Task: structure prediction
Amino acid sequence: MQPEIELGPLTLQTFGLMLGLGFVVAGIFAQKRLAELDRPPDWAYEMTFAAIVGGLVGARLWSVVEDWDDAKDDLLGSLFSGAGLVFYGGLLGGAIAVLAWARWRGVLDLKTFDVAAVPLAAAYAIGRIGCQLAGDGDYGKPWDGPWAMAYPDGTVPTTEEVHPTPVYETLTMGLVAWFLWSRRRSMRPGGLFALYLVLAGAERFLVEFLRRNDRVVAGLTLPQLIALAMVVTGAVWLLRMRSARGVPAPARS
Result:
């Protein structure tokens, strides 16, 4: 765990570094896939920039709404604080921004959704490394197992040993990114993004059982409800594709 790195007079936040690295890796995957689809690879920079801006704005707004009782007394300070970024707010904000960019470019189609699938999974996996290094409170419930960890120097410290859930998520979503990349040529347009929704939603739904978020409905947390919606949306999407066209044939691109 290393929330900060000192480089002479500079203090670098490891969460921010991993967030930036995640966007870089996402851009590389997007660039490669755009080239395979005979679309300008440079669009990856525009797409990634839109995702960064929309994602950060969405994550911040969601965080403020989620902690409204604390934020309402200093709304501007809360909006521009360096703390509190919520994944689903970032996903929603980034998605809206990328959709707006795609519409502007005239490429608002299923292939564009597919281009985003691997970058989303890879960026999430790398971002969770930042959560682990920062000890920012995304760790899990108390546990005394063989790889339990404490985060005494984290930005949200705890001396109690807990599930290192950011590690679980990095490993799982890294595998998801690899699997999606290996399947990118073998699915019909839209199928890869639908598969991302199923796998990413299932991962978050399951890991939430080990985390400390409050239960809101039927013993489930808010992230679990959103994750469940992702799984259902992706599964219905895939089933509709199969029923409409039969077994997906390899896409030649």
In short: Residues 4-186 form one domain. The chain is about 65% helix and 10% strand.
